[in-house]
Write a sequence for this structure.
DNA sequence: ACGATAGGCAACCATTTGGTTGCATGTCAA
DNA sequence: TTGACATGCAACCAAATGGTTGCCTATCGT
């Protein structure tokens, strides 16, 4: 729910890789997500639980199998609510940069 | 330059706050960025240097003053290259979620 | 020239983080 | 029912992280 959890979840390359793999094939089990990852099953499980906590991954139990699904909503919210805020001022910010950096030709 | 550095830089709330403050008023000094932050000057300086390393902040020396400018480019790249990738499959992913979660009405 | 101002560097510290191993639990299949 | 499979829980560990303090350097104003 909190945006901070989403940012922190996205900060780790292994977790982004897990999201990538879910995007490539949605609804994978923990075991399935493990192979190719150079770490123990428990390490992967910890990463997945952080992704769950950030609501980036949603889970569906099916017997003894835990299927993991990518939830694109939080990423979309970051795009719209956070990045959008910077996007609005992007041209002005770039202008500031150019002005300040080019203004002093003696550096 | 690396996208990982950008993600990690964005993972800390204090650093996001610094970006917010630069967005509100671009080209501030370290001292100026310090007040309101509940930490030492050195702590803020460390955060700023991480933002610099991620190229999210660009710096311009002016005498003894170091002016900090927001660089919107890396955020924009994340929006386009990374979030865009998920955006493309967003409808499908949401469909997957709905299907799987609604399909089992007995949970 | 000198004090005050703006910032940098380095050592140190506590907590968090990413990982491990060992063991326990629940479910499927023969 | 029994063994194998899929996962969870907890203790533990090393390294990274976010913060501190103390001191040093450089520049501005008087």
């Amino acid at each position: 729910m909190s945006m901070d959890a989403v940012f922190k979840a996205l900060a780790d390359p292994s977790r982004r890789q897990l999201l990538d793999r879910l995007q490539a094939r949605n609804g994978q089990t923990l075991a399935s997500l493990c192979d190719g990852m150079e770490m123990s099953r428990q390490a992967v499980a910890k990463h997945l639980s952080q992704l769950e906590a950030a609501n980036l991954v949603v889970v569906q139990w099916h017997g003894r199998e835990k299927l993991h699904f990518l939830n694109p909503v939080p990423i979309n919210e970051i795009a719209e609510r956070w990045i959008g805020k910077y996007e609005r001022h992007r041209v002005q910010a770039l202008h500031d940069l150019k002005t300040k950096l080019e203004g002093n030709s003696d550096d």
In short: The first helix of chain B runs from residue 3 to 10. The mean pLDDT of chain B is 90. Chain B touches chain A through 38 residues (CB under 8 Å). Chain B has six helices and two strands.
